[in-house]
Predict the structure.
Amino acid sequence: MDDKELLRRIAEKDHRAFKMLVDRFQNKVLNLCLRLLDNPQNAEDVTQEVLFQVYKSSRKFRHECLVSTWVYRIALNRCRNFNRDNRKFRWWGGLHRRLANERWGEQALVASGADDPESAWKDNERRELIRKAIASLPEKQKAMLVLHKFEGRSYKEIAEILDVSLPSVESCLHRAKINLQRKLAPDFPKVFRGRKF
Amino acid sequence: MKKVASDNKRACAFIQSHLISIAEKEIEKVTPLEIRDHLDSCPGCALLVQRFARAWQNMALQEETRPTPSFFSNLIKRIEAYEELSSGRRGIVAAAWRILRPVAAAAVFLGGILAGNEMGKTEKVPAALEESFTGRFLDSIDSIPKGSVADFYVSHQNLEKEDLE
C-alpha cells in the first residue's frame, strides 16, 4: 500500500493504517529530529508531535506532493518551533549531549577492542567537532545540510520540503559549506593533523 | 627552489580552505588530478584530508536511532484522548471551554484590577477637618513670641524662600 493510500485510510480513522505509516516514518523522523535538536529525549517528543500532527491533519493533505515531503516539512517546522520555544534551556541540551558523548566514547573504546583506544577517542573527538560546527549553523543552512548530506535528500526534494526554489537550495548549501569550513578551520591543525603548527 | 616551496604552501592553504569539498570528492573517489598530485607529495595534507573524510563519512553513517518501546502506545493513547475530546458531549464542553477560556481569563484579570482599586482606596480627610488643621497651624505660627529661637527659625526660612524666588 502506498503512502497516499495510507493517508486516505488514516483520514477515515483507520488505526492499522496509521501504525503502518508510523512504522514507515518513525525512524526517519526521529533521526532527522535528533540531528536537528541534539537531544534524544527531545527528539522523541518532537517525533511524537510530528506523527500526531500527521494523524490530525491527514484530511487536510492536498496530495500535491509526496507524503514523505509533507512529513519532513512538518518535522522541520516542529524542530524550528521547539528550538525557538526552548532557547533558554539549550545549555541543558548541551550538558545532556556531553554526557551522551562521553558514553559513546567509552563504547567506542570498548568496540575498538582497546587495541588503539587513542585512535577511537580521536575519531570521536573529530566527529564531535563536526557535529558542534553543524549545530552552530543558522537554522535554514543546518536543515538543508542535514537533509542533503546525512538524509540523502536531493536538491529538488529539499526545495519542496522547505518550499524554496532550487537555486536557493544550491546557494544556501554552498553558504552552509563555507560557514562550516570557517568554523572548523581553527581546529584543523590541532584535531585533524594531530600536531600544533 | 623557493618557488616550489611557495607553490606547495599555496596548495596546502587551498586544501585547508576547501577541505569539505575535497574530502567529499575523496570519498567519491573523484579527486581532481592536481589535488591528487599534491596529496601524494604532501603527507600533512594527505593525513588531514584522510582524517576529515573519515570523520565526515562517520557523521553520515551515524547509527540509526530507534524510538523507545512505549513510543507507539503513548502516541495511540494521545490520539484516543484527542478523539474522545473532539467528539461527543465532552467534545462540545471542550470546544466551549476553548472559546470561553480567554473570556474567563479576561474576567479574572479585570476582577483583579477592580479589587486592587477598591483595596487601594484611602479614606478622604473631611474638608472641615483639613481646614481646621490648617487654621490651627497658622494660628500657632502667629503666636510664636518675637525674638525667640522659633521666631528666628521661621523668619530665616521665609528669607530663604524669598531669595529663591
About this structure: Chain B has three domains: 2-60, 71-120, 127-164. Helices of chain B lie at 2-17, 19-27, 33-41, 43-60, 71-86, 88-120, 127-142, 149-164.
